[in-house]
Amino acid sequence: MAKYIKFTVGGFFGGYKTVEIAIVDGTATYKILRNGLLNVDKKKSPAKKISGAWLKKLDALKIFEWEKNYLSDILDGEQWELTFKDGEKIYRGSGSNAYPDVWENFLDWLDELIPELEFVNRNRLEKITMNYSRDEKFFETLTLDRHEKILTLDKKNSSHVYNLGEEAEKLFDSCQIFIDALKVEIVDVNFSTQINFELVRHDGSIENFVAPYSENFLPGLTNLLEEIHSCADDLTAEIFSPASTEIVPRQGKYIFCKVQFKGSYKHYTYQTDDETLSVGDVVDVPVGRYNDVNQARIVDIGYFDEYEAPYPIDRIKKIIGKHVADDWENY
Question: Residue 79's pLDDT is what?
């Protein structure tokens, strides 16, 4: 039975692309239009022999059961329209930043026939695993799964699973930006703390690399981990537990302190030259664009050479000094 599909998808800023597909007697032809104009290089494709398996994937989409309209409160973004004919039956539907459950399967089905349009970016991250290790004794694993929309954090004595829901796409966009911007340098140094990344992309390829757990080598990682924490509302466990630190003077090392502000679960990193500071001390620190002075409690201290410091030395803010105040006794 003959089948006909006309599908348009896009947005105001990125433009629209439209494809018309005719399926007759085991062959398919298609036309591509961009922003309403016929693509001059592909006025009409030659007839392609198609497999029964590919047609079964189309039937499995159950397009006639889709709703007529899919709407979201998000403005702008992506819009789509679909007309599907199968014999005498016709489906006409549309959406704005909202889609049927089988949307990804539908786009993959189109990509099989027309790979040059790439309805789904082949390099898109589908699953990210970060294996964190410290001193070859301590291990944690953080996994993000786009399809399942879940975050899994495996710690030494526990495992935590969190549903990301609608935050999954936003979080994966941030992960994509972080990963695509990385230029991991291979350094012949044994680092006590590092992360082994495993990336699964949409085309099925798997990429692995290891990098020191340092903002110098992984710029933006701290911000990404904070965003991960904020996207999982019920995530109370700390991501990648810090090492317990024996506080002893170390000549030539840079001292970094993680601090926690009152009423916040997040940790922020500052530098200090004061070797007398200890975990638990309350200190004055500069905060924000105008470096307003606020108080925070030190939760961890570490000593680093410049090449493995968690933040670039020339960009890190410094602790002003120890704070003394009675109203912090119960902080």
Answer: 92
Compute the distance between CA of residue 132 and CA of residue 142 in angstroms, rounded to an integer. 8
Instruction: For residue 309, list its beta bridge partners.
Output: none
Instruction: Round to whole Å and give the CA distance between 310 and 243.
Output: 13
Single out the residue of 165, 171, 170 nearest to residue 148, CA to CA: 165
CATH architecture of the domain with range 3-117:
2-Layer Sandwich (3.30)
Pick the more confident residue, 201 or 275. 201
Best CA proximity match to 126, nearest among 102, 150, 109, 107: 150
CB 73 within 8 A of CB 1: no
Give the model's confidence band at 247: pLDDT under 50 very low, under 70 low, under 90 confident, else very high.
very low
Give the Cα separation of 61 and 257 in Å (integer).
54
pLDDT at 189: 55
Instruction: Tell me if the pTM is above 0.90.
Output: no
Q: How many Cβ atoms are within 10 Å of 258's Cβ, its own excluded?
A: 20
Q: Residue ranges of the domains in the chain?
A: 3-117, 125-231, 254-328
| pLDDT at residue number 264 | 81
DSSP string, 26-64: TEEEEEEEETTEE-TT-SSPPPEE--HHHHHHHHHT-GG
User: What are phi and psi for residue 48, nearest 5 degrees?
Assistant: -110, 130
Nearest Cα residue to 155 out of 174, 140, 176: 140
